[in-house]
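Re: the request from the purification team.
They wanted to know what the chain is likely to look like in 3D before they choose a buffer screen. I agreed to run a prediction and write the result into the notebook, where they can find it.
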Amino acid sequence: MKKYQLCAIGNALVDMEFKVEESFLDACEIDKGIMTLVEEQRQDELVAALEGHPGKWACGGSAANTVIAAAQFGATCFYSCKLAADETGDFYLRDLHEAGVSSNADNGRGAGKTGKCLVMVTPDAERTMNTYLGISEGFSVAELDAQVIAASEYLYIEGYLVTSPSGRAAAIEAKRLAEAAGVKTALTFSDPAMVQFFKDGLAEMVGDGVDLLFCNEAEALAWTGCTDLEAAFQALQPIAKSFAITLGAKGAILFDGETIHRVAPHAITAVDSNGAGDMFAGAFLYSLSRGDSVPDAGRLASLSSAKIVQSFGPRLLKEQHAEILAEVFSTQPATVTVI
């Protein structure tokens, strides 16, 4: 049994989430539904414009949300990131500890400003992000802990790291360290914009392939250049031994290396899609790390992501994780079919 079930690396960002109308995005000329990197001044202007809107703060970033989800289910987790020694960094590390996640930041933080992600959620539950990376833009191999990686079941790599040269180099090195230690590697494409604008860099991070890939339908089609999922499935196999493609309201499709499994969706009313993909990955990895089958991991991940989009914010309450586990593993696996 490894010390950690999951070690993740990514951009440490305090998520500032607000409910907005479509008209706000239009008035501020914000591209809907994707992550856009912005300067701090631009982000501050938008936050000021949102005064009075319902909001919520939490330590986040894509990989952080995933590792926190896994920890809340009961996994032992570690998060490698870069935080500044400022008030925002204090909040981030405190929130991370309360979620049960250890971090390299426990051993010191640098000078600068901790990154923040402004998440705007429209009435259709779509999330739009404007991100100021701050000190996390300098995430590098210096933040990696080779001993922690070697002591983990899985290494999880956030695709957003591709936007920073040092972050991309760190992802490549972390993957090398994991493979040398016999640790399984998992990677998420993170966002359609990452595939659209940084595909060459992502290809460097993928290298000769990963054990597990997470992506949504738009990312799978954009990466492969295919027009249908069946063709995309074939095209993804050379870079991933297994993968999970989330399909939103249509559920998900999984490939375990031999068999394709379709996970049925849950009939819900979505309120906020922020964190749905991160939760799916966290639940999926937790389930695999304790020895569950890919279909069972898919069932847990599907229900978990369905639960999270029904409330505002990227997290579930801690007690909800135990309830989800009980619901999934006390019923027959009727929500997964083999294709």
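For the purification team: The CA atoms of residues 172 and 339 lie 34 Å apart.
Please add any questions underneath this entry.
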